[in-house]
């Protein structure tokens, strides 16, 4: 069993409905799920597009990191996610942020997520539900990373 953290985002259509869809589907592969509140955020690094609704979910899974990533991508596709170009607007975006205390570097999968420490829209919701969790790369808690980013 591994504790995992997943960032959720949507900026196309009924954003709240898309995020709720993802949470319902995550209940199939995660136990003991905790979900943050939703955060309205401006797009970062993707050019002009609609604002995002972001959140985070944490739970426990028996899936491998690779299998969990595949499941997250299936959920995105089932909700109409298209990838016409990098940074395109999306109905649903699910990112695997943490997988236990593991560091994974495989083709198509990097955990911890390589840019999560720089993203307020990931750290703020994640701190609500897992502020005491540690980043296995820096050894800092999520709450500490958020404080440093705000400073």
Structural features, described:
By secondary structure, the protein is of the alpha+beta class. The protein has one domain: Alpha-Beta Plaits, CATH 3.30.70. Helix content is 32%, strand content 26%. The protein contains four helices and seven strands, in the order βαβββαβββαα. It has helices at residues 15-29, 65-78, 120-130, 142-150, and strands spanning 2-10, 31-35, 39-41, 52-61, 93-99, 104-106, 109-111.
Strand-helix topology:
Layout lengths: L1 E9 L4 H15 L1 E5 L3 E3 L10 E10 L3 H14 L14 E7 L4 E3 L2 E3 L8 H11 L11 H9 L1
Antiparallel strand pairs: 1-4, 1-5, 2-4, 3-4, 6-7
Helix pairs in contact: 1-2, 3-4
Might you state the CATH topology name? Alpha-Beta Plaits
Low-confidence stretches: none
For the record, the CATH architecture stands as 2-Layer Sandwich
Proportion of residues in extended strands: 25-35%
The number of helical segments is 4
How helical, in percent, are the residues? 25-40%
Q: What average pLDDT do the residues reach?
A: 93
Helix and strand succession? Answer: EHEEEHEEEHH
Radius of gyration: 14 Å
The count of domains is: 1
Instruction: Tell the overall outline.
Output: globular
How many E-type strands? 7
How would you summarize this macromolecular structure in one to three sentences?
This protein is an alpha+beta fold. The protein is 32% helix and 26% strand.
Task: Fill in the keyword field for this structure.
Alpha-Beta Plaits; 5-stranded antiparallel beta sheet; single chain; alpha+beta; 7 strands; two-stranded antiparallel ribbon; 151 residues
